């Protein structure tokens, strides 16, 4: 046993020396910690520096998987519908009610509906609508207004005629055997003549004519053409004695651009035009009529129902019908200023009451007579010395 150990001892020492030379040098502080056991079997696992450790926080509460069904939400209540303004209740029209005839295309039909609403409570005015929505002054083969209007005037016998036409006239016109494009020189000349002939059919009969201009459209090209036609209407209608009703500003914004929503006749925001940018809503039709209504009432008179109201003493209440305490305070019967003897009296109300003349003020005495009233006793300007009273 001992001889075997002595024989293997040189080999072990040699192996240790070879191993020591093969291992690289390490810092001093590390060498102090290294042992032969470490050199033979490897170093223990080193710890990472504190700053390089990624700390994972413990998952305290496991996240719940999201459900495909969203949690129930409280139902959203739809806003309460805005109540439409009350419509005027139509009254029964008089047998001799004055008639306003409205003719033209779809714009005229909208104007007629608006005027019907405007005069719904007036028994002395009735609106008569006679028109064709797709008509105009260009396609006489579709609807010939120059031939049909005289028949309408003879049938209706209107007090006023309202015209709104031209929105369908942006198309080729047949003149004799030729076809002229819109806004060509020949087209404009022929259109001038047709507008003049159409308006003259009314004014020659001494009937007031109200020609309503076109409103702006959503299409810029349509709006530009509408301005051109409005110029033709104004010039030719006024030349034969009619009146042109300009509605352009009522359907554009401050910059002159087309608007779908704007101010209604009462100044409140409302939708005036349809989604097509051409037609009119109920609010838009009423606004159309608002412009025409002012002209129409001037021809009808300040009071359109003046035939139903007597402005004489027959409408005044009798004094005998008044309460006794009120009757005692009225010294005379009210009389008309324009005709004092209408009710048998000649004096105005209150003429029988005699009032005492007001006393002259110190200012009047000073200005008229140069007299100055004496100051009351005790006032600072009362400087007179009163004579001493004898005992």
Automatic annotation (TrEMBL):
Keyword hit for Protein transport: no
Annotated Pro residues bias: 72-84
Positions with biased composition (Polar residues): 58-70
Gene3D superfamilies: SGNH hydrolase
InterPro entries in the cross-refs: DUF459, SGNH_hydro_sf
Signal peptide: 1-30
CDD domains: SGNH_hydrolase_peri2
Protein name: DUF459 domain-containing protein
Record's keyword terms, sorted: Signal
Residue ranges, annotated region (Disordered): 48-85
Lineage of the organism: Bacteria, Pseudomonadati, Pseudomonadota, Alphaproteobacteria, Hyphomicrobiales
Pfam families linked: DUF459
